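Researcher: Go.
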Amino acid sequence: MSSENADAGTEHDQPVWDVVVVGAGPAGASAAYAAAVAGRRVLLLEKAELPRYKTCGGGIIGPSRDSLPPGFELPLRDRVYAVTFSMNGRMTRTRRSKQMLFGLINRPEFDQGLVEEAQKAGAEVRTGVAVSRVEQHGSAVPDRRTVAVVLADGETVLARAVVGADGSASRIGAHVGVKMDQVDLGLEAEIPVPPTVAEDWSGRVLIDWGPIPGSYGWVFPKGDTLTVGVISARGEGAATKRYLEDFIARQGLAGFEPSVSSGHLTRCRSEDSPLSRGRVLVCGDAAGLLEPWTREGISFALRSGRLAGEWAVRVAEAHDAVDARRQALNYAFAIKAGLGVEMAVGRRMLKVFERRPGMLHGVITGFRPAWKAFAGITRGSTSLGELVRTHPLAQRALGVLDRRDGGRAAGRTPVADAQDEAVGGSGEDAGREVSPVD
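Model: Structure:
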């Protein structure tokens, strides 16, 4: 309920929550936690019963660890110290690190833990509840400060602000008008293996640059189970399935029966895609926020969810549409100035990878500074944007792409272009619509 109207009710005699979050994945749980920690009345809605399975590699890189609630204990299934790289099964090379590169989790345990943190912070959780739509006008909405969340069974929940974190096929994202310009198909199998096989993979992952432009595969060890998957652009479904089958066979795993076989579409937002509409914000997959090259989404979900929860509190406190829009634009600026820059550089990296996978493989496996940069990204000591800004080899690789695309304005750097793309323009007009508003 709204902390301002907990006892007063409305003309519809319904309580009004400060913030309602739709979707209890990492983005939604993070948003609910952030809003609840701020002292607001928060309701977290999830259509499934928890815990539930999600198609996901389950890699927890540095930015993900840094975005977790204080004291959160990661339910790690393995710690990665080595990465084996290959080119469609060939040119295999393993690079090792004395420090942990990243951790591996199972999503059911991880997501459940984040939801429990939101509950400890004061959020109320309802599972098995599907949301049909949201309304910001009409008979279900008692006033201009309120959003109606209409459930599949016809029940209406009222809120001062709504956060959509309901996945890549988001109903809330459709309400906001989220636009996607990159859609990929991921196929994955959870393969139980005997101890002797599990021991061979302990502490090491495999990344295979695939036969389809922009595709790659992975093997992630999680105790007695290997998560094996591939991803490529949507529209290559048959070829992607063949790649997964061949990839599993090459690892000697074809004789083991998967406990789960699943598929999932990942979607990246267009650079001009909205992140809000009225008192409704979107984050995580619902907003199309993930790294375009690797399609890594957990860190983007955690970081955007936290920001969405913090700014939803301000939207909830806004007393008119102008103030609500100001706060929503500030949220958009925070996303685009950080995650947006990473995504813009990631788009460039994906294009290089699509055209020159062999070059990328050779650099990472044969050039020590490049491997150290890769390790820095996974640990969280640097980011893809920072890497391109400071690493001459990465700049040269992107320079090849820029020349093929017709060049760049004199004096421009890849990151400068990425920053302009992220905030929606360049020069004097850059970011005018989404600049921070006092």
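Model: The first helix runs from residue 26 to 37.
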